[in-house]
Write a structure and sequence with these properties.
alpha+beta, Nucleotide Exchange Factor Grpe, Chain A, domain 2, 2 domains, three-stranded antiparallel sheet, 4 helices, flat
């Protein structure tokens, strides 16, 4: 992400928070519904802008660096003095360099912000699901929860387009992808290591762990 794009993205995130803030004149239920509706619209706008920025950065990079190096390697391959295995090795390194460039300069900071937003909205959704409907406002609260679920779904779709995938739910702890935050007592050895609660979702990027999933597990003493 360029120096110009980073402030613009920060402003968009600030605008998103501002749009989600409740308006004083509205009732509690109306503020929740209005805020989440505005948030849904802002996140959709963010997704469209993210795609445009990513496409622009990748296209410019390939035009100024990747294509030039690719042409040079192709010319080398056509000479009899270059070993095919050496060319293949150089080509793989070039692909790796391009992927790392895209990730570090564009995807990594955007992914970090999207994961923070996903965590915050997931916490709101969890509290909302535990709230008791308040009679007349039950329909509005249900609509607000539905809108929030749509926002979370769209965020996951944005992450998938960046090749970020959520760690699949598992029954037992896998230390390579899980971080145990706390333990509950197990009544038998068979229950040792069994996951009882997922606290924070974990994610991978192209098969590489971005962050572990935080869980509560059972432990047999």
């Amino acid at each position: 992400m360029t120096e110009t794009d980073e402030p613009e993205f920060a402003l968009m995130m600030q605008g998103l928070s501002a749009e989600a803030a409740p308006a004083p004149p509205l009732s509690s239920d109306e503020r929740v519904t209005s805020g989440i509706t505005a948030l849904l619209s802002a996140v959709h706008s963010l997704g469209q802008r993210l795609e445009a920025v990513e496409e622009s950065v990748v296209r410019n990079f390939e035009a100024t660096h990747f294509q030039k190096i690719e042409a040079q390697l192709t010319a080398l391959r056509e000479t009899e003095s270059v070993n095919q295995k050496l060319f293949d090795s150089l080509h793989r390194e070039l692909i790796s360099y391009r992927d790392n460039f895209v990730r570090e300069s564009l995807q990594k900071p955007v992914i970090r912000d999207l994961l923070v937003l996903f965590d915050d909205l997931s916490a709101i959704a969890a509290r909302s699901s535990q709230a008791t409907p308040s009679g007349e406002g039950e329909a509005e609260e249900a609509q607000a929860r539905n809108n929030l679920a749509n926002v979370l779904h769209f965020l996951l779709e944005m992450l998938r387009r960046l090749e970020v995938n959520e760690i699949e739910e598992q029954e037992t702890v896998d230390r390579t992808v899980h971080r145990v935050i706390s333990f509950e007592s197990a009544e038998s050895p068979e229950e040792d290591g069994r996951i009882v609660q997922r606290l924070k979702r974990g994610f991978t990027w192209r098969g590489t762990l971005l962050r572990p999933e935080e869980v509560v597990a059972r432990r047999f003493r």
